[in-house]
Protein backbone atom coordinates (compact mmCIF):
# COMPACT_ATOMS: atom_id res chain seq x y z
CA UNK A 1 0.00 0.00 0.00
CA UNK A 2 2.84 2.36 0.74
CA UNK A 3 4.27 1.79 -2.71
CA UNK A 4 0.96 2.70 -4.38
CA UNK A 5 0.74 6.01 -2.44
CA UNK A 6 4.30 6.80 -3.37
CA UNK A 7 3.55 6.10 -7.03
CA UNK A 8 0.41 8.26 -6.82
CA UNK A 9 2.35 11.08 -5.21
CA UNK A 10 5.10 10.86 -7.85
CA UNK A 11 2.52 10.76 -10.66
CA UNK A 12 0.71 13.76 -9.24
CA UNK A 13 3.99 15.68 -8.85
CA UNK A 14 4.97 14.82 -12.41
CA UNK A 15 1.59 15.95 -13.76
CA UNK A 16 1.91 19.25 -11.90
CA UNK A 17 5.41 19.76 -13.31
CA UNK A 18 4.22 18.90 -16.84
CA UNK A 19 1.38 21.42 -16.52
CA UNK A 20 3.82 24.09 -15.28
CA UNK A 21 6.19 23.37 -18.18
CA UNK A 22 3.36 23.48 -20.72
CA UNK A 23 2.27 26.81 -19.29
CA UNK A 24 5.82 28.18 -19.55
CA UNK A 25 6.21 26.92 -23.16
CA UNK A 26 2.92 28.61 -24.11
CA UNK A 27 4.11 31.84 -22.47
CA UNK A 28 7.44 31.73 -24.34
CA UNK A 29 5.74 31.00 -27.65
CA UNK A 30 3.36 33.92 -27.12
CA UNK A 31 6.27 36.28 -26.38
CA UNK A 32 9.34 35.29 -28.43
CA UNK A 33 12.81 36.52 -27.53
CA UNK A 34 12.92 40.28 -27.51
CA UNK A 35 15.83 42.25 -28.82
CA UNK A 36 16.83 39.96 -31.70
CA UNK A 37 16.87 42.19 -34.76
CA UNK A 38 17.55 41.90 -38.46
CA UNK A 39 21.20 42.58 -37.78
CA UNK A 40 24.62 41.13 -38.62
CA UNK A 41 27.52 41.71 -36.24
CA UNK A 42 30.99 40.88 -37.43
CA UNK A 43 34.44 40.84 -35.85
CA UNK A 44 37.10 41.58 -38.46
CA UNK A 45 40.25 40.20 -36.85
CA UNK A 46 42.27 39.71 -40.03
CA UNK A 47 43.26 42.50 -42.36
CA UNK A 48 44.58 40.21 -45.07
CA UNK A 49 43.21 41.06 -48.49
CA UNK A 50 41.13 37.94 -49.12
CA UNK A 51 39.54 38.07 -45.67
CA UNK A 52 38.86 41.80 -45.92
CA UNK A 53 37.21 41.22 -49.31
CA UNK A 54 35.01 38.50 -47.80
CA UNK A 55 34.09 40.73 -44.85
CA UNK A 56 33.10 43.65 -47.08
CA UNK A 57 31.18 41.43 -49.51
CA UNK A 58 29.19 39.91 -46.64
CA UNK A 59 28.63 43.34 -45.07
CA UNK A 60 27.44 44.97 -48.30
CA UNK A 61 25.31 41.96 -49.21
CA UNK A 62 23.61 41.96 -45.81
CA UNK A 63 23.10 45.74 -45.88
CA UNK A 64 21.63 45.46 -49.40
CA UNK A 65 19.14 42.94 -48.03
CA UNK A 66 18.00 45.49 -45.45
CA UNK A 67 19.91 44.12 -42.48
CA UNK A 68 21.66 46.41 -40.02
CA UNK A 69 25.37 45.60 -40.17
CA UNK A 70 28.17 46.38 -37.76
CA UNK A 71 31.83 45.54 -38.30
CA UNK A 72 34.22 45.57 -35.36
CA UNK A 73 37.84 45.90 -36.53
CA UNK A 74 40.36 44.58 -34.03
CA UNK A 75 44.09 43.73 -34.05
CA UNK A 76 45.22 42.94 -37.62
CA UNK A 77 41.75 43.82 -38.90
CA UNK A 78 42.76 47.47 -38.41
CA UNK A 79 44.81 47.10 -41.61
CA UNK A 80 41.56 47.00 -43.58
CA UNK A 81 40.55 50.48 -42.38
CA UNK A 82 43.85 52.34 -42.47
CA UNK A 83 44.64 55.02 -45.05
CA UNK A 84 48.29 55.85 -44.30
CA UNK A 85 51.28 55.29 -42.05
CA UNK A 86 52.38 57.95 -39.58
CA UNK A 87 55.66 57.56 -37.66
CA UNK A 88 55.88 60.90 -35.84
CA UNK A 89 54.83 61.06 -32.21
CA UNK A 90 55.25 57.33 -31.67
CA UNK A 91 57.65 55.44 -29.45
CA UNK A 92 60.10 52.89 -30.89
CA UNK A 93 57.78 49.89 -30.54
CA UNK A 94 54.84 51.73 -32.11
CA UNK A 95 57.10 52.82 -34.99
CA UNK A 96 58.11 49.18 -35.43
CA UNK A 97 54.49 48.06 -35.73
CA UNK A 98 53.84 50.90 -38.15
CA UNK A 99 56.81 49.84 -40.30
CA UNK A 100 55.86 46.16 -40.35
CA UNK A 101 52.12 46.49 -40.94
CA UNK A 102 50.39 47.62 -44.14
CA UNK A 103 49.53 51.30 -44.31
CA UNK A 104 46.23 50.78 -46.11
CA UNK A 105 43.95 48.16 -47.62
CA UNK A 106 45.76 48.44 -50.96
CA UNK A 107 48.99 47.22 -49.34
CA UNK A 108 47.60 44.07 -47.73
CA UNK A 109 48.59 40.61 -48.90
CA UNK A 110 46.70 37.36 -49.16
CA UNK A 111 46.43 34.91 -46.28
CA UNK A 112 47.51 32.07 -48.59
CA UNK A 113 49.73 32.07 -51.70
CA UNK A 114 50.73 35.70 -51.34
CA UNK A 115 54.10 35.16 -53.08
CA UNK A 116 55.64 38.42 -51.83
CA UNK A 117 52.63 40.44 -52.95
CA UNK A 118 52.17 38.87 -56.38
CA UNK A 119 49.17 36.86 -55.13
CA UNK A 120 47.35 40.01 -54.08
CA UNK A 121 47.97 41.55 -57.51
CA UNK A 122 46.68 38.39 -59.21
CA UNK A 123 43.48 38.44 -57.11
CA UNK A 124 42.95 42.14 -57.87
CA UNK A 125 43.47 41.43 -61.59
CA UNK A 126 40.98 38.56 -61.48
CA UNK A 127 38.48 40.80 -59.71
CA UNK A 128 38.81 43.41 -62.48
CA UNK A 129 38.56 40.72 -65.19
CA UNK A 130 35.36 39.34 -63.66
CA UNK A 131 33.93 42.79 -62.95
CA UNK A 132 34.02 42.31 -59.17
CA UNK A 133 34.25 45.51 -57.15
CA UNK A 134 37.67 46.23 -55.68
CA UNK A 135 38.13 46.05 -51.91
CA UNK A 136 38.29 49.84 -51.81
CA UNK A 137 35.02 50.08 -53.76
CA UNK A 138 33.41 47.53 -51.44
CA UNK A 139 34.55 49.58 -48.45
CA UNK A 140 33.01 52.73 -49.98
CA UNK A 141 29.80 50.88 -50.76
CA UNK A 142 29.64 49.62 -47.18
CA UNK A 143 29.90 53.21 -45.97
CA UNK A 144 27.19 54.33 -48.42
CA UNK A 145 24.90 51.54 -47.23
CA UNK A 146 25.29 52.68 -43.63
CA UNK A 147 27.37 49.79 -42.34
CA UNK A 148 28.54 50.67 -38.84
CA UNK A 149 32.33 50.37 -38.70
CA UNK A 150 33.89 50.39 -35.24
CA UNK A 151 37.64 50.36 -34.55
CA UNK A 152 38.71 48.61 -31.36
CA UNK A 153 40.21 51.22 -29.02
CA UNK A 154 42.41 48.71 -27.23
CA UNK A 155 43.90 47.29 -30.45
CA UNK A 156 44.45 50.79 -31.80
CA UNK A 157 46.33 51.77 -28.65
CA UNK A 158 48.36 48.54 -28.45
CA UNK A 159 49.50 48.79 -32.06
CA UNK A 160 50.08 52.54 -31.88
CA UNK A 161 47.58 53.36 -34.62
CA UNK A 162 46.62 57.04 -34.54
CA UNK A 163 43.24 58.41 -35.60
CA UNK A 164 44.90 60.21 -38.53
CA UNK A 165 46.00 56.82 -39.90
CA UNK A 166 42.41 55.56 -40.11
CA UNK A 167 39.87 56.12 -42.84
CA UNK A 168 37.50 58.97 -42.02
CA UNK A 169 34.02 58.23 -40.70
CA UNK A 170 34.83 55.32 -38.41
CA UNK A 171 33.70 54.96 -34.82
CA UNK A 172 35.92 53.82 -31.99
CA UNK A 173 34.76 51.56 -29.21
CA UNK A 174 35.55 48.65 -27.00
CA UNK A 175 34.41 45.09 -26.71
CA UNK A 176 31.17 46.24 -25.05
CA UNK A 177 30.30 48.09 -28.27
CA UNK A 178 30.65 44.89 -30.28
CA UNK A 179 28.84 42.75 -27.71
CA UNK A 180 25.96 45.23 -27.66
CA UNK A 181 25.55 44.78 -31.41
CA UNK A 182 26.12 41.02 -31.30
CA UNK A 183 23.57 40.48 -28.52
CA UNK A 184 20.84 41.83 -30.81
CA UNK A 185 22.09 40.16 -34.02
CA UNK A 186 20.60 37.20 -35.85
CA UNK A 187 24.01 36.50 -37.36
CA UNK A 188 27.42 36.97 -35.74
CA UNK A 189 30.63 36.31 -37.71
CA UNK A 190 34.35 36.22 -36.95
CA UNK A 191 36.59 36.89 -39.96
Give the CATH class of the largest domain.
Alpha Beta
Mean pLDDT figure: 90
Largest sheet: 5 strands, parallel
Q: For the terminal residues, how far apart are their CA atoms?
A: 66 Å
Helix share of residues? 40-55%
What does this structure look like?
The chain crosses the membrane at residues 52-78. Keywords: Membrane, Transmembrane, Transmembrane helix. Pfam families: DrsE_2 (PF13686). The protein has 191 residues and is of the alpha/beta class. It has 2 domains: 1-32; 38-190, Hypothetical Protein Ychn, Chain: A, CATH 3.40.1260.10. The protein is 48% helix and 15% strand. It has 7 helices and 5 strands; from the N terminus they run αβαβαααβαβαβ. It has helices at 2-30, 49-64, 92-100, 118-129, 135-144, 153-159, 175-183; strands at 37-44, 68-73, 148-152, 171-173, 185-190. Strands 4-3-2-1-5 form a 5-stranded parallel beta sheet, with helices on both faces. Helix 6 (153-159) links the parallel strand 3 and strand 4 (171-173). Helix 2 runs parallel beside helix 5 (135-144). The N and C termini lie far apart (66 Å). The model has no long low-confidence stretch (mean pLDDT 90).
